[in-house]
Amino acid sequence: MGCAHGKCCNRDSSTSDEDAGHHQRGIRPYKNKDGLTQRSLELVQVPSHNFTLQYSSLTQHGYYPDTTDRENQDSFCIKTQIQGNPYVHFFGVFDGHGQYGAQCSNFVKDKLVEILSSDPTLLDDPLKAYNSAFLATNSELRDSEIDDALSGTTAITVLVVGDTLYVANVGDSRAVIAVKDGDRILAEDLSVDQTPFRKDEYDRVKLFGARVLSVDQVEGLKDPDIQHWGDEESHGGDPPRLWVPNGMYPGTAFTRSVGDSTAEKIGVIAVPEISIVRLTPSHLFFVVASDGVFEFLSSQTVVNMATAYKDPSDACTAIAGDSYKRWLELENRTDDITIIIVQIKGLSNQSGVGTTDSEVHSRPCQTGGSMNQSAAIVPPLMHQRPLESDVG
């Protein structure tokens, strides 16, 4: 979801897992190779716990019939061996919005990992380092030549430190992990979309003076005093958005982002919510993707589709293709689509300090905020001797 005249906000809650990939009618086919960037299958070892991460990524330019020359505003970053350490790896997806969204997302994906990579406290206190990196990146964007008054980017990132995932989210992109539970493979969200549908986020931005209204409400077509929009998954195409007290802008459908200096005045912040997962053998893979993927596909559907492929690059192609087709079934365009899939290979209970059950904190801790983060903190990995070079 983006600004009022940007992304559509429909969600197809009736979509079943079984019909994934099966569509008809003469929609534009998923074969825009000029707008497709895909990395081949890659591997990185995590020697501290004797397992391997096998990953691939894909970004697909959106189809916009009225602006065919519009650039892809999504970007992504994969950086292995952060600080030359073979146990620390970074995966991030950045979804830009506004006139300068592409510049914002590319600036942020480079700057965020640069700041993390240069922070000497990263392994001692990943939570503090993550929080500081997001705020510093936001400040650097503000001081750059990029006009971020009405432009910015969301960010969903996963930092792998040994057998622990630190997932930092700003905005409404998403990370999901696949968990084996008997004969089932379940999707567990690693992030919670930050939108006015959430009561805590709604209350927070209201304190900053934001008007929270749908487009129909702000244009006088519906009663603005009805401050209830249901839930995000079942809502139609007119979600609650943020507006300044006496203007028809910025109209953001998210409550956190990097950039968006105008929206910052009404409560849109760059403070990440961070969740922590201690990996176990029941964790099979995780997905990091922009909301172009999750607009019409549920987390469980994405996990089901990814499970069907041994090669994560094939899974990325299938999921992006199905997302693209679903957009065009329900809209006359598509969003930009970006996805990273990371398979977890060879992890055993004997390979490190493990837990017997899946340890996913359903509500992320909010560093620098009001959420209780003590329950989510796990001990950081002890320092290991780094390699001589950084190969990310």
UniProtKB/TrEMBL annotation:
Residues 364-373 have a biased composition (Polar residues). Keywords: Hydrolase, Magnesium, Manganese, Metal-binding, Protein phosphatase. Its cofactor is Mg(2+); Mn(2+). Residues 1-32, 352-373 are annotated as: Disordered. InterPro entries: PP2C, PP2C_BS, PPM-type-like_dom_sf, PPM-type_phosphatase-like_dom. Belongs to the PP2C family. Residues 54-344 form the PPM-type phosphatase domain. It catalyses: O-phospho-L-seryl-[protein] + H2O = L-seryl-[protein] + phosphate; O-phospho-L-threonyl-[protein] + H2O = L-threonyl-[protein] + phosphate. One of its GO terms (molecular function) is metal ion binding. This is protein-serine/threonine phosphatase. Pfam families: PP2C. Its EC number is 3.1.3.16.
